[in-house]
Each structure stands twice: as structure tokens, then as C-alpha cells.
Amino acid sequence: MLSAKLAGERAVVEMEMAFRPTPENEVWQADVGYVSSERDDATADDEYLAGSPDLVVEVLSPSNTVDEINDKMSLCMTTGCSSFWVVDPKRQRVSVTEGDVTKHYGVSGSISCSLFEGAVPVEEIFR
After folding, report:
1. Domain count along the chain
2. Which domain range does residue 18 map to?
3. Model confidence pTM above 0.85
4. How far is CA 82 from CA 21, 99, 121, 124, in A?
5. Which of 34, 72, 101, 105 stands the most exposed, by the fewest C-beta atoms within 10 Å?
6. For residue 27, how many other CB atoms are within 10 A of its CB?
7. What is the spatial distance between Cα 93 and Cα 42, in angstroms, rounded to a whole number?
8. Element (H, E) at 121
9. CATH number of the CATH domain containing 85
């Protein structure tokens, strides 16, 4: 999906990235998280990332509700996340929210993001 080659040395990409959106929140996990190397280096090995990753990718499953995803996106976008992706395997679509704008991409599209160089072909996400 997002690979280390897109991140280069500027960022860290992890599946099941643990983070604490605010000090009051329990620990959350992004299905895939992307965080700058600077923020990653500032987080001790025995601590969770403070605030949300710079990019959060959530993969929908049958147990997800619209409210749950919208609540997670809202909190992430106010605690450090600049790009929130929702991957919908059933519809083969990725919805990308940056700021107040959400764009939807089908399998023939490519997603560009200000956080990294290059684009992610949507079809690669669903392979």
C-alpha cells in the first residue's frame, strides 16, 4: 500500500501504528500510519506517538460503522493528521480527506499526497 520507498528517509510507514491522539485518549491504531522521521525520532521506544500520524489509512471491514470512521477521522484531523485515507475493499475505492476536502479514487486513479513524492496507483492498494 504505502511503502518505505515513498517515505524515503523522511518518514516511517507502519502497519498497525499505535498512537495516542490526545493525552486523555486511550491508545489507538491506524491500519497503516505514516509519520515524519522527526516525530518518530522524538518518540521513545517505550512510548506511543503523541498525536495522530501525519497520514492515517483505515481499511473498512464489515464491523466498521460510518459514525466510527467519521469520529476517528475528525479526531485524527484535529490532532496532527494532514491526510486521512479510507480504503473500501468492497467498492474498490479510496476516499482521501485533506483539510475540508474529500476526494474519491477508483482503481484506475492515482493518489498524490503532499507528504511524499510520487503517487500511489489505487490498483496497487487492492492487489
Report:
1. 1
2. 4-125
3. yes
4. 13, 7, 20, 22
5. 101
6. 10
7. 34
8. strand 119-121
9. 3.90.1570.10
